[in-house]
């Protein structure tokens, strides 16, 4: 490999990291350089403002240096641009170079944390050792208090993955593809059993650390959570397959997030890959379905029910919540002054905040249509599905076809608007 400067390496390895979507920072603990435990001599913080790359649970922007340790890899996964047989320019950082870059960017107020992943070089254990060394050096040698997210390698020794959790705020292990068949076909060197085994070990470590810190203040911290990512559109998996897989991962491993990444055609692509990428709207609909399970109390089978039974795909022209409501017209209209919270969450156009406000307000007054209109972006979308003090959708509800009234209208974008 030709000798490259730091700036050239950064250009190559930052660009290569863009395919990894799972870099949110929710779950991070608040730390700053003035903590008494560090004698006020630490460096970095998980608080403050900066370049927006990820969001914490309270809405704060967390700016991250998002790079790969190297884009060289001994694996030959068909969908990966960094696979062994790919004709791309290669680069590699040393652990010390990543540490120096992170500190340098932080001191210039460009970042508040680090997201570090890597291709597999030499062996899974060797690569994992390098990732852990970066985090260890930042925490112990430089007392870095900022956010660290490490992408761990499931084939590595479990003790190395455990060490990653001791230094990182979050760890993630990609399941890559939603079906076993797709993984065997497109990534034959990866094993679903080892991936899920590593996720299970991280879950146990998180729970053990939480229990220990509840008993002993001096107990070591462990990563606050783990996440994963699935590639969508590289194999024949349907949206129903993806939703079912995500639900299983949430239930079994207590994940913070499942990320969906639409497959993107890559240079010198394998013949087994599709020639074109799936619609980006498909990725968006999967995120919406994920939201329904996490915040709107939908069961996985209910979300799958919103998909086309023939194809297993969610509709692209309307969101899954509206699609489900149109298929279950017998559940509507819902009386906003009487219905329980779980029924109000099923109303298209009403978000969690709007429902909470309705439940709170109706204790003191009867809710009218104007009140609902102030809580939603489109009262026209909501009206066919609710009953208020002064509104009952008698004529609308009797229509055989309701979709034309509530589906978003398509319009031509203006080039010079």
Output the keywords.
DNA polymerase, domain 1; two-stranded antiparallel sheet; six-stranded parallel β-sheet; TIM Barrel; alpha/beta; 417 residues
Structure, explained:
- By secondary structure, the protein is of the alpha/beta class.
- It has 2 domains: 6-278, Aldolase class I (TIM Barrel), CATH 3.20.20; 328-406, DNA polymerase, domain 1 (Orthogonal Bundle), CATH 1.10.150.
- Helices cover 38% and strands 10% of the residues.
- The chain has 16 helices and 10 strands.
- It has helices at residues 6-16, 95-107, 124-141, 158-167, 180-186, 192-215, 239-253, 280-295, 300-305, 320-327, 341-344, 352-361, 369-373, 379-382, 394-397, 403-406; strands at residues 54-55, 61-62, 64-68, 113-117, 147-151, 170-172, 225-232, 257-262, 334-335, 386-387.
- The protein has a 6-stranded parallel sheet with strand order 3-4-5-6-7-8.
- The longest helix has 24 residues, at 192-215.
- The chain is globular, with a radius of gyration of 24 Å.
